[in-house]
Amino acid sequence: MPVEFKIVPNSVRQPNARDYADCVLDARMTYLNAPGFGRELSHLLRARRRFVTVDCAAVRHMDGAAVATLLEFAMACGEAQVQLRFKQPTRAFRDAFSLYNLGHLVGELTQAPDDEHTALVIIVEDDFDDSIRLPAVKAA
Fold first, then answer.
1. pTM (2 decimals)?
2. Which helix (H) or strand (E) element contains residue 62?
3. The CATH number of 4-113 is which of 3.30.70.660, 3.30.750.24, 1.20.1260.10, 3.30.200.20?
4. CA distances from 21 to 18, 24, 101, 110 (A)
5. What is the mean pLDDT of residues 60-70?
6. Sign of the alpha-carbon torsion through 27, 29, 30, 32
């Protein structure tokens, strides 16, 4: 079964949507199809994308060749200063990397949900007369 690999144009992201590429991997990723999706991934580097997200949610099986292909792509991204993120890696995806003692790499490259990066920071400046005074927040 050939790997389904789609490069999804992302026109929603700002400021420059041409810098982003979203990829979807969907298949049994083995030595039979690793060269094919490896070539497709390398096209993203030649397209000079700055941010690449690989959606791994549908991956059900990976072997060592697929791990090696993704590892090679991750290293090439690092050299080209491209930010690579894995989105929703499945257990099979994580297990394949863990088998080669590379589980930490999946954790480092996993895309955090956008709401985890949202925060409100309030700095209370008692030492300044012109600082805004906010009422204290009580735990509910």
1. 0.67
2. strand 61-62
3. 3.30.750.24
4. 8, 10, 28, 15
5. 92
6. positive
